[in-house]
Amino acid sequence: MSLRQLLLRLPRYLGVSGSPRRLWWSPFLDTVSSVGSWRGQSSRSPAHWNQVVSEAEKIVGYPTSFMSLRCLLSDELSNIAMQVRKLVGTQHPLLTTARGLVYESRHNLQLRGLVVLLISKAAGPSSTNASCQNYDMVSGIYSCQRSLAEITELIHTALLVHRGIVNLSELQSSDGPLKDMQFGNKIAILSGDFLLANACNGLALLQNTKVVELLASALMDLVQGVYRENSTSAKENHITEDIGISAWKEQTFLSHGALLAKSCQAAMELAKHDADVQDMAFQYGKHMAMSHKINSDLQPFIKEKTSDSRTFNLNSAPVVLHQEFLGRDLWIKQIREAQEKGRLDYAKLRETIKAGKGVTSAIDLCRYHGNKALEALESFPPSEARSALENIVFAVTRFS
Fold first, then answer.
1. Where does residue 61 fall: left (phi above 0), alpha (psi -120 to 50 degrees), or beta otherwise?
2. Higher pLDDT residue, 7 or 152?
């Protein structure tokens, strides 16, 4: 049985059934002024995200959809999986995370590793430094760069698992027995730590101190970003928190952009490229991640139908921009008008936001970051890998 087949059967092993729920992500941003015109042409944009990913995977030599989950075949995670089965029937979010990793990895969860492989191939070997020409290279990518892509995915997956830890002090009776949540938290911590330990071991094997420094700082950024998100939680009793554009921008880079940006830079370092090439790779990763995040924030506002009335966060990009244009006082007034018996009517609030400038401004901002990502690629020679990186940008910034 192949790894892909094994992982696709994982939900049955865990006793999980039904269609997966989309995992929630939170927001952040860049300046709104001087968005500029959109450089991408729809004729160059693949119709479906799946098509973009499938074509990109062929370019890098093998499917990357489950690259971060290879360690599921290890005895350690096999034992953890057996423990996770005990959570079936409870409401602990670790089950949702496991299900999302299997189903949604075909759409965007494995994007980071794929981008690292593509930009590695697009840059190729350094023309000025021949010190790594003896390294193993498959499909134009060094083996150390493939290891880096897997490490990036391990770190991201570990974060997803750790983010599913429940705050026991805020549990309600409807959330289920306390002992189930406590047990789920222990398994989530153990699983996430195991993935991080494997990532750290892989980093050490690369034997490159600058790459270790880059990934360590990216991990620090992730932790700081998640802490900030939690401190500005969009729970209904915190709806008056003032999240400005500059704070949104900084927080988004920390929690969504730093890992991809610094991994792309690290891939160039492994191939001994100079500082200019490393910076261009960093810029592509940064702006690509920002554009991808804004696209995710926009989905509840641009989808024709949505079955979940609470599929957006009050700190998401369209909402932050809506508040920025509207002004703080009027925004608070709209919040209060959408409250019924102390609870927010998210469907009503969504329509109010859609009627303002927040959604269209977020689309412009998404395309602005897409343009910046495309500009960073101009320093790379034309190739199928570069075209694939461009197609990813076009797919993320296409809204029609």
1. left
2. 152
Flag whether pLDDT at 236 surpasses 90.
Answer: no
Q: Please state, in angstroms and rounded to a whole number, the distance separating the CA atoms of residues 33 and 41.
A: 22
Q: How many CB atoms lie within 10 A of CB 4?
A: 14
The answer to whether 145 touches 117, Cβ cutoff 8 Å, is yes
106 Cβ contact partners less than 8 Å away, ≥ 6 residues apart: 50, 53, 65
Q: Which two tokens stand for residue 129?
A: 């430094």
Helix ranges, the chain (H): 3-8, 10-14, 49-60, 75-84, 93-103, 111-123, 143-163, 178-206, 209-231, 245-252, 258-270, 275-302, 317-326, 328-337, 346-354, 358-377, 384-396
Query: What is the per-residue pLDDT for 363?
Result: 94
Residue the block writes with tokens 């989808």: 303
Mean pLDDT (whole number) for 129-145 = 75
Q: Give the pLDDT mean for 32-50.
A: 46
Please work out, in degrees rounded to the nearest 5, the angle formed at the alpha carbon of residue 371 by the alpha carbons of 367 and 373: 115
Specify the residue for token string 């401190």: 231
Handedness of CA 164, 170, 175, 178 (dihedral sign): positive
Interior/surface letters 95-128, b for 16+ CB within 10 angstroms, e for the rest: bbbbbbbbbebbebbbbbbbbbbbbbbbbbbbee
H or E element: which one contains 340? strand 339-340
Query: What's the confidence (pLDDT) of residue 43?
Result: 36
Q: pTM higher than 0.85 for the full model?
A: no
Query: What is the structure's pLDDT at 93?
Result: 60
Residue whose entry in the numeric block shows the structure tokens 């959330």: 175
The model's pLDDT over 84-113, given as tens digits with 9 standing for 90+, comes to 555 555 655 665 666 555 554 444 456 888
Say how far apart CA 46 and CA 317 lie, in whole Å. 25
Longest pairwise C-alpha distance within the chain:
69
DSSP letters along 131-149, please? TTTTS-EETTEEHHHHHHH
